[in-house]
Amino acid sequence: MLRQVFYTYFHFMNVSIEPSWKTKLQPEFEKSYFKQLVGFVKEEYRRNTCYPKGKDIFAAFDYCPFYDTKVVIIGQDPYHGPNQANGLCFSVKDGVAHPPSLVNIFKEIKVDIGTPYPQSGDLERWANQGVLLLNATLTVRAHQAGSHQKKGWEQFTDATIRTLSTQLEGLIFLLWGGFAKKKAALIDVSKHHILTSGHPSPLSANRGLWFGNQHFSKTNKLLSEMGKPLITW
Asked: 54: alpha, beta or left, given left = phi > 0 and alpha = psi -120 to 50?
């Protein structure tokens, strides 16, 4: 029944979602707000250029199945420039210039754990290791940042965070910036770890709120203490 409901909503855009997540998020797909959200997204993609491509809307889930999740990074909404958004927060497609926030992420990794600055800005390699790269809003109109906010995506992704918090243990949530830090209220800190810092954007980083947070080495230290495989950042 769930497969039928989900594809009735999204068949026109070649959209799917990974099976374990489909099962876990079934209650959300059946709620009225989600039906209204889908109607809005359909119309937006029909009338305007929107990102990411339909097949990539749920890429964060597709590359990181529910029970494989070890780390959660929360962004705000997708990049709104041509050929940038690929459905994973902070990530861009191969060959695309790295946006400033991603540049600062890679700079911190280099200093923190010594990994050379990479050519590719596609973070699929992280997602495949259990890093859920979740934007709070999963779609955006071209060249209009925040244009799909407050249409229902936040309710859906908040439910995602609650489901992770409730049904799993030992996750590490990396909350960067004021927006992401607000999501701490959805997380059971008796079961999970939360690391917070400023956002990697230049505005925050230049004020000394990002560099030196050592979140990548700290994450791997926590994973090691829990007996879990480390992330190759």
From this structure: alpha
